[in-house]
Specification:
Elements: E1 10-14, E2 17-24, E3 29-33, H1 47-50, E4 55-59, H2 75-89, E5 94-99, H3 101-112, E6 117-123, H4 134-138, H5 144-148, H6 153-163, H7 172-182, H8 187-198, E7 199-200, E8 204-205, E9 222-227, H9 235-241, E10 248-253, H10 260-263, H11 265-277
């Protein structure tokens, strides 16, 4: 599996927040957004294939990696940040791809700032259902989350392996990079703050983190990609959400967990390129 290396860190003011990002490839601009607790490096496996077709703009989501934290955790704060990122780079309207929490931010931006995006890909995304793995719910309990959360190579490896079908795709550099990002001041606290904003022990995703009643407002094509064996968010939630979109397609990747762009990058890239270049989405 080819891994993108030697990528240059850049910075931009995105809606008032200092944002670290990568800019790689040529072609139509596409924003790639990682999930909660992750960073730009989580896209390394997908970059080589996608950069053959697109100019990829890959930021650390505000509050994660080396990007500045917003003053509050909310749908508005994250949606405004991504809209600010797209506007600061003067690339909109463009396509945006988001995994997990990143998918929720892409979706919020499409709903609240429709001038910024013209096509979106939601990969094992939040905001499409209420179900979430019990382990993540446990982290929302005050003090328990602080006690359970660990930032070392072994702990990061266990977490990634738990979210996937198998550990073969995990490379040592990713583990070391993730631990390094986790050592940024306040990183662990912000992770828990963001998690607790959207998830509770008993209800799973809170009502404010789910947008099922707004999906019909989207007037752009949507692709939903899901790992069939995703243990974090069940495929059934994605399937139930599909009829609520105006114009959407669902692509399921077999033998894959929560992060298709990392576990099955070749298939993930093929599906994304097919969607972004193949005309309108189909139900």
């Amino acid at each position: 599996m080819a891994i993108a290396t030697d990528l240059e860190d850049r910075q931009v003011d995105a809606g008032g927040l200092r944002t670290r990002y990568w800019d790689v490839g040529e072609g139509p601009p596409v924003v790639l957004l990682h999930g909660i607790g992750a960073h730009t490096g989580f896209w390394r496996a997908a970059i080589p294939g996608l950069a053959e077709h697109y100019r990829l703009l890959i930021p650390d989501m505000c509050g994660f990696g080396r990007s500045q934290r917003p003053s509050e955790v909310s749908r508005t704060a994250f949606g405004d940040w991504l809209a600010g990122f797209i506007q600061a780079l003067d690339i909109g309207p463009c396509a945006a791809v988001g995994n997990s929490m990143g998918g929720g931010v892409v979706l919020a931006t499409a709903l609240d700032h429709p001038e910024c995006v013209d096509r979106i890909v939601l990969s094992d995304s939040i905001s499409l259902g209420r179900n979430v793995m019990f382990t993540m719910r446990l982290l929302t309990i005050p003090l328990v989350g602080e006690l359970l959360l660990r930032n070392n190579v072994a702990a990061v490896r266990r977490m990634l392996a738990m979210l996937a079908v198998g550990p073969d795709w995990i490379w040592d550099g990713l583990l070391e990079e993730t631990v390094e990002m986790g050592e940024e001041p306040g990183a662990q606290a912000f992770f828990l703050e963001a998690l607790r904003w959207g998830v509770s022990l008993f209800s799973g995703f809170k009502e404010r983190a789910v947008v099922l009643d707004e999906l019909g407002d989207l007037a752009i094509p949507v692709q939903v990609i899901w790992g069939r064996q995703d243990p974090l968010f069940p495929l059934g939630d994605a399937e139930a959400a599909m009829p609520l979109f105006r114009d959407a397609r669902l692509d399921v990747i077999d033998d894959c967990g929560h992060m298709p762009h990392m576990e099955r990058p070749a298939e993930f890239n093929r599906l994304v390129v097919e969607f972004l270049t193949g005309g309108d989405a189909v139900s």
